[in-house]
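Entry type: protein chain
Record version: 2
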Amino acid sequence: MRDTEPVVVVGAGPTGLLLAAELARHGAPVRIVDRRDGDCRESQALGVQARTPEMLDSLGLAGEFVARDARVRGFTMWDGRRRLARVEYSTLDTAFPFLLDIPQDETEAILRAHLARLGVEVEQGSEVLDLACADGHVALTARGLDEQTLTIRASYVVGCDGAHSTIRRLVGLPFDGHGYAHEWLLADVALDWDRSPDDVHIVFHASGRATVCMPLPGGRWRVILYFAGRWDAARPPALAEVAALVEERVPGPVAVSDPTWLATFQTHRRSAPAYRRGRVLLAGDAVHIHSPAGGQGMNTGLLDAHNLGWKLAAVLTSGASEALLHSYHAERAPIARDVLAPTHRLVQLTALSAPWQRAARGALVPLLAGLPPVRRQMARRISQLYAGYRTSPLCVGAVRSRHGRVRPGDRAPDAGRLVVAGRPARLHELRRGQGHVLLVVGVGAEDDAGALLCRWGGQVRRVGIDAAMDADCEVRRRFGPPALHLVRPDGHLAASGREAIEAYLGLVYGSAVQPVQAGVTSASLYELEREGTVLVRPDGHVAGRTQHASDDPPGVLRQVLGTILSGGRDRDA
């Protein structure tokens, strides 16, 4: 371990908690500090999209979220009482084809318990006042609950401290964008009405002021009233005021009662130009915020943490070059832009008020949503299953593949009809654990797999799949040739083919021989057409692939990865 100082995560919301847990899980020293003096008491963020429980499943946590019995099957758009469109999540290619409407305080409670099991406790009431970078570390000045100041030395600092991030301000990064006009109202209440509790309902209004109703556990609802006018931020709305606005906007009868939380808030669309300044990084709302339309914010932050966690741990514990951290901005910034744009367009769609605009919306939305491919694509985007890193600097050795097959940078999909030791299994279950996963398909690739594991068995786990496991050829259809695929710790494909994988691992982790770890023994996970190699990154995305073990010369990968991961002068992201 090259750095003895811990990574200090600033902010103990969902993003900070997950990042600290990922660092601890991968063996990196970590501290997490938070200016609050206790747990989150309001529900704040709500929707957990399908890509997030997929990620949590790799950590063994998905079951705790699903057990909350908060599944949402789809979302429906209404113009008054006229239904314009309904999009179902059941078409999603995942073991979690639904949205989970779980309040943020419950999400944080699950993640805090997970972090505590890893031996890390949140240092509450610690407010960061200043930071300075020097001599290969960061010195933080903080003030504790006792009002005394202290200095904390860190190898890296990650600001997960929200939209008003102190860390972002201290490193001098702007937060460009704009706010939306007027305050929005939020109410967690009981609703007595006739619309399905299985859906999120978006109700357009002739005034251009929409209402969104999201089902909560226990038969309750979260109501968000867009563009609610000017409100005194110091005074939450009264129940009677919320009920009057709901009656005005949502065709009845609708009875609003039993509030547990009433609040006003302002919403913004902003982002920072960089995710990293030297040894200081940003994640979640500290680097990008947007409207709650579509329920994307918390999910984007959690996936930031999952992407960054394994990379920081690799640098600190496994000899990876610090230049690996450049890929964090390169991969996650485009995803944030992809989230900012459609959420803004959805707000604009709800705000249409001119008669001709409303007429056009009333005609076009049903027409487009009536096409099954459009509905499927809408569900994929909202669920974030579409998100991948094909343009990442880590995607090397890529080859052309048939339509629908996985390419380096893509999310490595699940295969749900496998049989292991006589029982049903999913591919995502088999790759649970730490580090990269080497998928070995067919007996013909065993020698190549053995050679890789002899050198990098400490960082790579083997999962072998044979024809008996994959009788429906599901793996082969999804991944195609070749016979070796390396999946990153965050579930994206890193590379395919022995030469590509060997070069990637050599440049990321070095050439030292690592002890071999046992894996799932099977031979043809994907029933590939012929031998080859696939490298899957630690985050579960495909990094590269070749059609045959000899098709991808190592020089190509070494040249590109050498520049990205170990070559050149270190620079800010």
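Comment: Residues 418-566 form one domain.
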